[in-house]
């Protein structure tokens, strides 16, 4: 698969994820959209790696996987804690984290 097609698909996935983060009100859907954005970045890294024949970006993919795993762990802990307090998953109700 040529690099422009891979980058176009990665951009499309990133745009869908960004739109989901900006438009959705459910915290779990927002977290899934952030994961989609991180996976689109991984796809772009792998596309560049295959195009240029360099395996250095595989290390970056592993780092993004680590960041995604930590984000899921911490994000879900915050979501569970806030759900226990507010009994809702709406982003608008989570104003307790502000200053």
Summarize the structure.
This protein is mostly helical and about 100 residues long. The chain contains three helices and no strands.
Give the helices and strands, then pairings:
Elements: H1 3-23, H2 27-52, H3 57-86
Helix pairs in contact: 1-2, 2-3
| Poorly predicted segments | none
Task: Give me the CATH architecture, please.
Answer: Orthogonal Bundle
Q: Count the strands?
A: 0
CATH C-level label: Mainly Alpha
Q: Per CATH, what is the topology?
A: Helix Hairpins
Tell me the helix content. Answer: over 70%
The succession of helices and strands, N to C, reads HHH
Q: State the distance separating the first and last CA atoms.
A: 48 Å
- Can you give the mean pLDDT? 88
Strand content: under 5%
Class of secondary structure makeup: mainly alpha
Shape: elongated
Count of all domains: 1
Biggest beta sheet summary? none
Radius of gyration: 16 Å
DSSP helical segment count: 3
